[in-house]
Amino acid sequence: MAGWRAEGSDITKRMTKRIGGWARMADVAKLAGVSMMTVSRAYQGNGRVSDATRARIAEAAATLGYVPNLAAAQLSSQRSRVIAATIPSLSHSQFAITLQGLADPFREAGYQLLIADCGYSAEEELRAVSTVLGHRPDGLVAIGVDHCPAARDMICNARIPVVETWDLDQPVMDMAVGFSNRLAACRMTEYLIAGGRRSIGYIDFPAPVVRRFMERRRGFLDAMGAAGLRSDIVLDAGQGPSGYARGREGAAHLLECEPDLDAIFCATDAHGVGALLECQRRGLSVPGRIAVTGIGDFDIAAEIPPGLTTVRLHAREIGRQAAGLMLRRLEGDTAGDKVLDLGFELVVRGSA
Amino acid sequence: MAGWRAEGSDITKRMTKRIGGWARMADVAKLAGVSMMTVSRAYQGNGRVSDATRARIAEAAATLGYVPNLAAAQLSSQRSRVIAATIPSLSHSQFAITLQGLADPFREAGYQLLIADCGYSAEEELRAVSTVLGHRPDGLVAIGVDHCPAARDMICNARIPVVETWDLDQPVMDMAVGFSNRLAACRMTEYLIAGGRRSIGYIDFPAPVVRRFMERRRGFLDAMGAAGLRSDIVLDAGQGPSGYARGREGAAHLLECEPDLDAIFCATDAHGVGALLECQRRGLSVPGRIAVTGIGDFDIAAEIPPGLTTVRLHAREIGRQAAGLMLRRLEGDTAGDKVLDLGFELVVRGSA
DNA sequence: TTGTACGCGTTATCAG
DNA sequence: CTGATAACGCGTACAA
Questions:
Q1: Which of A320-324, B57-61, B62-66, B240-244 has the highest mean pLDDT?
Q2: Set of chain B residues whose Cβ sits within 8 Å of the Cβ of A299
Q3: Same domain? A90 vs A58
Q4: Which of chain D's bases lie under 7 Å from a protein CB?
Q5: Are A204 and A300 found together in one domain?
Q6: How far is the CA of B122 from the C1' of C10 (A)?
Q7: Which of A23, A334, B21, B55 is the most buried (most CB within 10 A)?
Q8: Is the same domain home to B301 and B321?
Q9: Are residues A139 and A118 both part of a single domain?
Q10: What is the C-alpha radius of gyration for chain A, rounded to an integer number of angstroms?
Q11: pTM, to two decimals
């Protein structure tokens, strides 16, 4: 533990920068000829430090390649300036967009996102949550509202602001930003029915235990039931290699079981695009012979002919607003809404 | 600062759990009737603690809702068990897949990923890098090899293992996993030429300053030059709302300027799909009249008729291998290759 | 505007 | 197998 600190002169340090570890604030202070507190204040920005001193500190820091140790800062200040974000899957494009919507406002406000992939199982989620909480985040943004009881307990015990996103059909722990998945699916189904479709099949997400998808299916069933139509043409998508493939296979299966189908409603746009392509491959005209719709308004939905009719979900805006809610709370503002319903938008294109 | 700790009896704590903050290891120790060190050892797993003691500790921890403070652990142990990951864009699907490939092995080995969106500019990158380094990660995995000199300096000064990914055309700082973007583009171009295409247009990524795309363009130019063909039909994709839209607009522009084009090679599959759709919309038969190809093998490439011919890049495997390299180094293994070329795979489908 | 003393919650070290 | 003590690097509170 003696290392260079004990033996190295300031000159040596200056020449070689660091030999065996990180420069500490004390090193910067010594080189700049001030106390640590002055360096600390210079970095925090708020404290009043003369310009001359500030410049000397900046130079010393640059010479030493000093990067403040945030763990020490957190331990001392009891604030981490870290926001935890749990996400069911990093490769879900819409979630990634929400994440980006989150990241920008937080970064500007000086917070760093700590992203935890919480998977789709209770164990994974609990592990992810306990790990991120170990970093003592100042707040938590959850993408999705599915939480196993243990994770929910742990999060509540953390006594930090929490924003849940993407589904307003469930009661939430604290704050929330999103929309009603059930209503979105219901409206789309009503649109199909209003367009004269009667025999409508539904292709669900392969893991329908996910709340978000349970609500969508529920919305579909509600609307079909209300219209007095058959609501049993429901299929869990298979295990194809991609969402597109699963939609394609699902549509194939559905069309074989129910040749008279005049619409296929998919729980996500990836499935929808796959289903659309499958219909076209079979020579079924879309939307003449059969309608196909999805949910999500993925980029491809606008491009694939004849355009996939879908529901736009404002994924980026969900992130932005969630960050806004969190930042306001962190600044001590406890007034204002705790739940923001951003709604959704039926996007009618050629496919239905 | 007096708070509940001073006044609350153990019973009170047990009943109400925590009233005003996190339980600390000292609280767990007291409740379990052991010293902090024993608790610490119990959590670290390696230290020898009797089963009875371990059970009492587990019970106390559960009662108090104890979650170890990782910042304190890091400060004390000088190891964070955090791996920094820089990524140019969270919403780039292939990068997200690499991230997932990274996350699993690291999680299993007890490391948490700290993901920093480093954007596409030098300032953003420097800020991102300095923030993550502030958390004193035990290692850094960079997605992409583009680094501004300042960021590169900062990373080198950190003296931690570094794995760069996705591009082996550049010299790297330490370790690397990926493939040659230049060679991938070159091979695809050669394939088109071998198929009889002579007038080949290239649609580049809109920010060709990104190294990865510079190399791809270079590969295209190399192959065209070697074949003695025109290599000036190169277009930067425009600013459409999505990669698909940019590819579509790019193709439209190209086809208007160069009506005799018999192939369009796009720097990414998103552009490729857009270009393919645009060709079809114009009634040009693909691949009869014109060939279209991309790079990346996105999911949609396999689905869109007639199938987009492309280059598969093993995005997930890049992540997995990068994690493996890093973990081996963290375990002190300095033998073995420092650079892994995972290559690429020409995937021939209907479009070319 | 700048400096001093202390504590944040954990682990390393050494002793039992 | 368990415990006492001293760091780890920084910010808060207060003093100058």
A1: A320-324
A2: 241-245, 270
A3: no
A4: 1-13
A5: yes
A6: 36
A7: A23
A8: no
A9: yes
A10: 27
A11: 0.90
